[in-house]
Amino acid sequence: MEITGVSAYTSAxxxxxxxxxxxxxxxxxxxxxxxxxxxxxxxxEQKDVTQFASSEYDEDDVEEKATxxxxxxxxxxxxxxxxxxxxxxxxxxxxVANFIKKYGPFSSTAEISAAMYAAVGSLIKQQQDDE
Length: 131
Description:
Order of helices and strands: HHHHHH
Strand content: under 5%
Low-confidence stretches: none
Number of helices: 6
Helix content: over 70%
Number of strands: 0
Oligomer: single chain
C-alpha cells in the first residue's frame, strides 16, 4: 500500500517554511533599507499610521476645497448666466464656519464635495444647446 498523503503534507509544510523564510528575508531587507534613512521599520510604520489617522479638516482646508469645487463647476460646466452669477455670489459670501456646522465635520475631500453639491446643486443649471 502506498502512502501519498504524507508526502503531500511534507510538500505543503516545506512550502509554508519556504514562504516564511522569504517573508523574513523581505522584512530584513526592509529594515536594512530603513536604517539607511535613519529610521527603523517600526518607526516608519507608526509614522504612516499616524498620517492616515488624521481626523478632521480645519476651516482653511474646507474653504480651499469648497472654493476649488465651485471654481471647477463654473469652469468645466456650460452654465447659464444666472447659474454662474448665483454660484459666484455663493462663493463670494461663503461662510466656512456655518458650512462646517451645517454639513460637517469633514475628514475627506469627497465628503466636502458631497456637501457642496447638497448646498449648491439647485444653483447649477446648464445651457441647452440649440440644434
